[in-house]
Design brief:
With 198 residues, this protein is an alpha+beta fold. Helices cover 37% and strands 25% of the residues. The protein is built from two helices and seven strands, in the order αβββββββα. It has helices at 2-48, 170-195; strands at residues 54-58, 70-79, 82-93, 98-106, 111-118, 135-137, 142-143. A five-stranded antiparallel sheet has the order 1-2-3-4-5, sandwiched between helices. It starts with a helix and ends with a helix.
Length: 198
């Protein structure tokens, strides 16, 4: 009996020390991680909507056209002349894990840019989606993400139809295309509501 109590006590002490150590590490690293995430987000916003713009977070719920895609955040894009676009932080299921990305869309209903924030897709295949030196159109040196720039948000965004898929990574190509399509639909509805009836 004493042996069991002694073992329980030892395990309890080890658990308390481990828990305390984890809490201490989190207290030190938590603010650093949040600051780095905020910096990555700010850089990403500027990349998908390059220029002299301000980004203001929206606290709205959006109705999504595709239930597998999630909108994790929305940022209105402003210039000194007013609202010029919207950037949506989107999560879409990839082949290995959810792919987190930013999709910038202009008020004129075209895509301004797409940036992947987080992806665990297969190196050499799906991971090529975020590689600016991997060209899906070698002749025009067009990367996978660059092909979305300037496309109308009313496009179908279907790989092998109006989106050039990454060779050997159809699921990744489809996941990103679905994310862009969902962001486009949300943008269209947002500006349609803002502009009112024709």
């Amino acid at each position: 009996m004493n042996k069991i109590l002694k073992l329980t006590l030892i395990l309890g002490i080890i658990g308390a020390i481990s828990g305390g150590a984890l809490a201490a590490v989190y207290k030190v690293t938590g603010p650093v991680i949040r600051a780095q995430d905020a910096k990555t987000l700010q850089v990403g916003l500027s990349e998908v909507f390059p220029g002299d713009y301000q980004f203001e977070r929206l606290n709205e719920e959006f109705e999504l056209p595709d239930p597998v895609v999630q909108i994790d955040g929305a940022y209105i894009v402003k210039s000194n002349k007013g609202i010029v676009g919207l950037v949506l932080q989107v999560t879409s299921p990839g082949s290995q894990a959810p792919i987190k990305m930013l999709v910038g869309t202009k008020k004129d209903r075209t895509v301004s840019g797409v940036k992947i924030l987080e992806s665990l897709e297969t190196p050499g295949l799906g991971a090529n989606a975020s590689n600016p030196d991997y060209y899906v159109d070698k002749e025009n040196k067009l990367s996978f993400l660059d092909q979305f720039k300037g496309k109308k948000i009313s496009d179908n965004f279907i790989p092998k139809e109006d989106v050039i898929a990454i060779t050997g990574a159809t699921i990744t190509s489809d996941a990103i295309a679905k994310g862009v399509k969902a962001a486009g639909k949300v943008t269209h509805n947002y500006f349609k509501e803002m502009e009112g009836p024709e």
